[in-house]
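Entry 12.
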Amino acid sequence: MDFLEIEDLSIDLGEFKLVDVNLKVKKGDYLTIIGPTGSGKSILLETIAGFYKPEKGRIYLEGEDITDLPPEKRNMSIVYQDYVLFPHKTVFDNIAYGLKKKIKDKDKIREEITQITEVLNISHLLHRKPDTLSGGEQQRVALARALVVKPKLLLMDEPFSALDVKTKENLRKLVKKAIKEYETTVLHVTHDFDDVWSLANRVAVMKNGRILQEGEVNEIFYKPSINFVAEFVGTNVLEGEVIDKEDGLTKIKVGSLELLSVDDGDGVVRLSIRPEDIVISKHPIETSARNEFRCKVDRIKRMGNLVYLALSVDDIRLRCILTPNALYSLNIKEGDVVYAVIKATNVRIIS
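Predicted 3D structure (tokens):
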């Protein structure tokens, strides 16, 4: 049996629900859970934590059925977006709160708090109150409080979403270090794909209370199993037909294009191409990539620190990503004709 096993978990809370959720998590996994708002991600975490009793299904942790155990008996910690710190207590006392229920030796408590605060770079804040801390510092205190009790399972519900980009980057590095040092298994709900790429080894995609696909990060992002997952993770999905195989490559006819893939396939297939794997040039370029074609730039949209280009080749539609600097240096405008280059390794046959 896996470290955490969830079998046919179902609960209906009206606006939110879980429907026959099955999930297996190995010890040491860092699983991120993604999906649209209202898909049941937070309810799944809180049901695992014991805040809700499922109407159907079982939860096993290290082979023990914990479905009916109260939250305090499950040896789990949960971290939320809004920190939930005691405003009248110091950082030291906030972190010590749960630890004092497990350890009575004051020297041991101080030793454990010293260790976790050094890992998370907040040892200089122990005398301070939460309202004197920045958002990033408060979240590190919340993480320290969650990890210092050495939970079997750490649950995190969008812990970085209220923080600025730079603080998120720094906190991810510290979390990665702390998780490694404490050998903690993590379930992390997020809307930020940077959390997935930076921290996770596995990812689950949810919609309407169901897990639609779960697997390694590259598998989900490069080989989504269904259209919704592909659309949600932002990959391009094309339908075509295998017409030939040559030199270990599969040739697929997609509309007016012929694309080469390293994957094997036969008949009608669906292809996945990540937007970041499409290289754009104003002129033909010499490259080892096996797929190059002319296309039109229909639309340019800036989102944060990235620029999304909507491309078309006859009736085929693709999205690609550039940095603002790349867009400026290439001097690409809407209506321009450009060359798209894609390696055969980045044209993935998904069905």
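Annotation: The CA atoms of residues 90 and 129 lie 5 Å apart. The first helix runs from residue 41 to 49.
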